[in-house]
C-alpha cells in the first residue's frame, strides 16, 4: 500500500475524478451487488477525519415507503425554494430533474455524530465545523468509489433535515449531512447536467486560484504555475 502509483493507476484515479457526475436520471433496474456496495462503503469509511473521530454513519435505505416520504419532502422543498427566484429562471428550475430517490435501488443518508468518542476531539476545539468537513470527505470517497465501480450517485440537497430526522428516526444530536441516490445508470453524462442546461458556467481554474493573499493573481514568486493555470490544463 505504500508503493508509488503506476501511470495506469494515476490515469484511473483522474478518470474517476473527471468523469464523476451528480446523477439524477438514467438509473437502471439492475441491483447493486452487496460486494460492490460493501466496497463503496469501506472506501467512505477510510476517509480522513479530524482527530480520527470517524464521526459518520451510513443509513442504507431501499424501502419504498421510506423513499416515498423522503420524496415528498423533496417536492415540498423544491416548490418552496422556487419562490426565491424570478421568472423565467423559476420555470427553468422547476423543469429540472434534481433527484432519483424512487428510481435508484439504494438510498444512503450520511450523518454526522458530534458526540462520537466524547466531547473532546483533537483538532475540533478551534474549528468545530471540522467534524462536518470530515463527513464530507467520507462522502467524496464514497462518490469516487461508486464512479469507479460504474455506480451512479446523486446528492439530493433539496430536503428538509427535520423531515429526514423524523422519517429516519435520528437522535436529536445527529445531523443529516447528505442524502444520496445510488444505482447503475445507462450512461454518465459528458458534462454536469446544470452546465449542459446553461444554468451556470464552469469557471476556469485561473478564476479561483490566488497566490499568497486574497485576489493576488500575479505574484512573481508563482510565475511558472501561473502560466500552467492560465493554459487551463484539464483532463475533463
From TrEMBL:
Residue ranges spanning the membrane: these are: none
Task: Write out the entry's keywords from A to Z.
Answer: Flavoprotein, FMN, NAD, NADP, Nucleotide-binding, Oxidoreductase
Task: Enumerate the InterPro entries for this protein.
Answer: BluB, Nitroreductase, Nitroreductase-like, Nitroreductase/BluB
Q: Which GO terms describe its molecular function?
A: nucleotide binding; oxidoreductase activity
Record keywords: Protein biosynthesis included? no
Q: Domain Nitroreductase: where?
A: 17-184
Q: Which residues form the signal peptide?
A: none
Gene3D superfamilies hit by this protein: NADH Oxidase
Identify the domain of life: Archaea
Keyword Oxidoreductase assigned: yes
Pfam families the UniProt entry points to: Nitroreductase
Q: What is this protein called?
A: 5,6-dimethylbenzimidazole synthase
